[in-house]
Amino acid sequence: MDTVELARALFGTTLGFHIIYATIGVGVPVMILIAEVMYLITKDKDYMLLARRWTKGFAILLAVSIASGTIVGVMLSLLFPGFMEIVGQVIALPFVIEIFAFLIEAVFMSIYLYAADRLPPWLRLVSIASVAIGATASAVLITDAHAWMNTPAGFELNENGQVTNVNPIAAFFNPSFLVTALHVTLSAYMTVAFLIGSISAIRLLRTNVNKRERTYHRKSLTIAIYVGAIMSLATAMNGHATAQMIYEYNPRKLAAAEGLFETTTHAPLSIGGWTSREDQEVKYAIEIPYALSFLAGDRFDTEVKGLNEFPEELWPPLFVHILFNIMVGIGTLLILLSCIALLWRWIRKKPLPNWLLALYVAAGPLAMIAIEAGWCFSCIGRQPYTIVNVLTTTEAATKSNNVGLLFVLFITLYVMLLIFSIGVMRYYFKRNPVQPELTEKEV
Amino acid sequence: MDESFMAVTILWSFLFVYSLLGSLDFGAGFWAMIYGKNQHTNASIIANRFLSPTWEVTNVFLVLFVVTLVSFFPFATSMLGTLLLVPLGLGLILLTIRTTFMVFAHHVHKFHNTLRITSGVTGLLIPAMLVSILPITLGGFIEMENGYPQLLYSKLLTSPTTYMHIAFGLSTELFLSALFLSDYAREASDRTAYHTYRKHAIWLGPLTLGIAILTIFTMPPEAAWFVQNTQDNVLPFIVSIGFFIAGYCFLLLNKWIRASVLCIILQYGVAIYAYGSAHLPYIVYPHLTIQQGFTNSTMFYQLLIVYAIGLSILVPAFIMFWRLFLKDRRYVRPDN
Fold first, then answer.
1. Per the UniProt record, which residue ranges are transmembrane (chain A) (predicted)?
2. d(C-alpha A48, C-alpha A31), whole Å
3. Where are chain B's structural domains?
4. What is the phi/psi pair of residue A275, to 5°?
5. Is the CB of B295 inside 8 Å of chain A's CB atoms?
6. Interchain proximity B82–A410, CB inside 8 Å
7. Could you tell me the CA-to-CA distances from A392 to A13, A201, A379, B18 in Å, in that order?
8. A209 touches B: beta carbon within 8 Å
9. In chain A, which among 105-144 make CB contacts under 8 A with chain B?
10. Minimal Cα–Cα distance from A319 to chain B, Å?
11. CB within 8 A of B273, min separation 6: which ones?
């Protein structure tokens, strides 16, 4: 591998690792906030206990999220100095605002974590709400920079390749900012809801759980089902808007996502299969006639551009079709699952049966896979550019020779952290089971 | 005032804050390691009690510094990023190990000993790595290859000035943290811990000052411009030493330890700004000046607004934070 490929591999792995913890870091505070509010409304102490135990797990994972986030921030400058040179001139605002959002999150997280017992209830609510707002704001702001890479705005390049006519506000509100930021936020809330649903489902499937503990886990599952249902539907609606944004601003990416080679009206939607470069078609796919045109422009005669409109060296890797399908496919499955669970509760008015719980166990990890696939799709689908039509990845990458050594060290670090963070979570919750805390409160 | 000069002043102020917070954070980790096994003193408990809620905030200041550098001086970032790939990469790995272990050990008591050692050792290695960046920017350790800067590792690792910088960084870290922790122990009314840390501050103070002065003499010929600049403007350094003497007297008097802490902060404040102004106009000598590294003025003024708004929200949050963890007796002295 040459330096550019190594730099991409290292940074891609770093983001792939960070996004797991970052997604959890964005979603869990919202779940804690919901539990705290439920407690204030119902005065049911189970919700307070849920909030407390989620906070414990959150604190463990937040450490990895903060550490890997620090790595991402510094590594951007180390591995892609050419990119950061333009970032600093055009799109520095979200990065700087993000620091303050994150400081607010860090300060109030410490307060909520170490001083909760000294705070009046309303101030505790303000603290965790600030954590949730800070975390979501951080995600929105970093997504802004990502959106700007897809739809750059707010500057011009002169004939020497220098940045001129900078308009930081126009860069901040670049065309894809709002729709992409919403996509990231909603899907993070959705994923965490399903993850918590998975954990509750695992507990409920155990046979040695007593009635008291069962009620407790059902409350957790109920929150997870409702939040998951709302967020997965919202993510899908916003996903539609995202696809139309890609159609408008980044037709090359849409063509690669759908494996469409020839520009055409009444374009079909290909589901599944893999894109063949030689035969210029998607093999073994299910084709829905006219669907792609309709999705892109709300009309069957919308003209969708194919890959052949662009020189082949500017095509993104064609396997992004698979990534796109994984993301959309899992999203659809999760909506279905939520609907079944809700209907079961509303019509049968009974606790979920074991087969449905078993499906919920799988839902959390699947949602996380969809997040990974979505980020990979968005970043690989942007290739060969780092900033679309402005800066190629080769120009952006470092010219330093030592990336290989760092690659090995960082991968080792991530593997270790993954194992350790799972180990610590298991150890902590085994040592501190919920049962004694439930009975303790009733005395 | 020149825009790039304003920008570098803000950047330098963040560096000042981080060097203080970082010294406390890393130093507290080191002292907790030293006194972790000692049954007779609460010195390690005091250090850990300070560390638990503060490390996140300290860590954010590091990121704040990096982001400020990128946004104010994007062209400097591309050069420094290429140059410092390996040292900063290794530093990041150590910082990650430190951060995550600290939180892991908080939840798994089996890890306590591993944590003590990890936090203590990284508390020395990370600052050493960060301080070694200073001599690189002074000149003599960079070679241009095909228009891209490369770091001369063998020259850097065999140069006495590198090690003097590291010695200065470490003694500063230990001095500041010992002094601050003795004040924190006094707040907690813990006499033994107070005396333990005060004793260390007393021998570390003059040592740090001595190393700082000696470091200037180890600078390579390429850094002669910098030495010349410090000699041309020696007054702030004298003021700084004045603050040190005042602070040291308060420390010896065994009273008004808070006044001693304030004097030493002033000492470092004056010295850091004097160091910074002697470094001008270069960011990396002789390849890059602040004007060459500077962003455009549109971006600069937008950023200024963001910093003003951000800080005005944060200051009240910090005051609340300070009251809860550094003043509130229920946290500082939980056993009473």
1. 20-42, 54-80, 86-115, 122-142, 177-202, 223-247, 318-344, 356-383, 403-429
2. 12
3. 3-332
4. -85, 125
5. yes
6. no
7. 20, 46, 13, 35
8. no
9. 106-111, 113-115, 118
10. 31
11. B12, B16, B236
> Which A residues in the span 149-178 are in contact with B, Cβ-Cβ below 8 Å?
163, 166-169
Residue B231 CB contacts under 8 Å (≥ 6 apart), including other chains:
none
User: Is the pLDDT score of A197 beyond 90?
Assistant: yes
Which of B60, B70, B150 lies closest to A95 in CB terms?
B70
The CA distances from residue A210 to A216, A375, B7, B80, in Å, are 10, 41, 63, 60
Closest-approach residue (CA) in chain B for A123: B320
Task: Please say whether the beta carbons of B35 and B48 come within 8 A.
Answer: no
Q: How far apart are CA A161 and CA A168, in angstroms?
A: 18
CA distance A36 to A109: 15
Sign of CA dihedral B227, B229, B233, B239: negative
Q: Measure CB to CB from residue A70 to each of B95, B146, B314 and give the nearest one.
A: B95
Contact A153, A75 (CB under 8 A): no
Q: Which of residues 320-359 of A touch B (CB under 8 A)?
A: none
B84 touches chain A (CB under 8 A): yes
pLDDT at A37 over 80: yes
Q: Do A70 and B59 touch (CB under 8 A)?
A: yes
Q: In this structure, are strands A156-157 and A163-164 parallel, antiparallel, or unpaired?
A: antiparallel
Q: What is the DSSP letter of A352?
A: P
Backbone φ and ψ of A269, nearest 5°: -100, 125
Chain B nearest C-alpha distance from A200 (Å): 22
**Half-sphere exposure at residue A64, Cβ-oriented, CA atoms within 13 angstroms:** 28
* pTM over cut 0.80: yes
From B57, B77, B92, residue closest to A71, measured CB to CB? B92
pLDDT tens for residues A246-283? 888 888 888 888 888 888 888 888 887 788 777 777 77
Convert the pLDDT of each residue in B29-74 to its tens digit: 888 888 877 656 677 777 777 666 777 778 888 888 888 888 888 8
pLDDT > 80? residue B24: yes
Q: How many domains does chain A have?
A: 1
Say if B207 is an interface residue toward chain A (CB within 8 Å): no
CB contact (8 A) between residue A78 and residue B81? yes
Exposed, middle or buried by CB within 10 Å (0-12, 13-18, 19+), for A158? Answer: exposed
Radius of gyration, alpha carbons of chain A: 23
Amino acid at the residue B328: D
In whole angstroms, give the CA distance from residue B23 to residue B29.
10
What is the four-CA torsion angle of A48, A54, A59, A65, rounded to 10 degrees?
-140
Average pLDDT, chain A: 87
Identify the CA nearest to A31 among candidates A271, A273, A219.
A219
Q: What are phi and psi of B159, to 5 degrees?
A: -90, 130
Percentages of chain A per state (helix, strand, coil), in multiples of 5: 75, 5, 20
A150 Cβ neighbours under 8 A, 6+ residues apart: A176, A180, A249, A250, A253, A378, A382, A388
Q: How many residues does this entry show for chain B? A: 336
Per-residue pLDDT tens over the stretch B85-102: 888 888 889 988 888 888
CA torsion through residues A182, A266, A315, A406, sign: positive
Query: What tens digit of pLDDT does each residue of B152-167 get?
Result: 888 888 888 889 999 9
pLDDT of residue A368: 94
**Contact check, Cβ <8 Å, B96/A68:** yes
How many other CB atoms are there within 10 angstroms of residue B67's CB atom? 23
Chain A from 350 to 409: CB within 8 A of any B CB? 398-403, 405-406, 409
Which residues on B lie below 8 Å from A395 (Cβ)?
none
Q: Does A95 contact B314 at a Cβ distance shorter than 8 Å?
A: no
User: Rounded to an integer, what is the distance from CA A164 to the centroid of its chain?
Assistant: 33
Give A 420-439 residues with CB within 8 A of chain B: 420-421, 424, 427-428
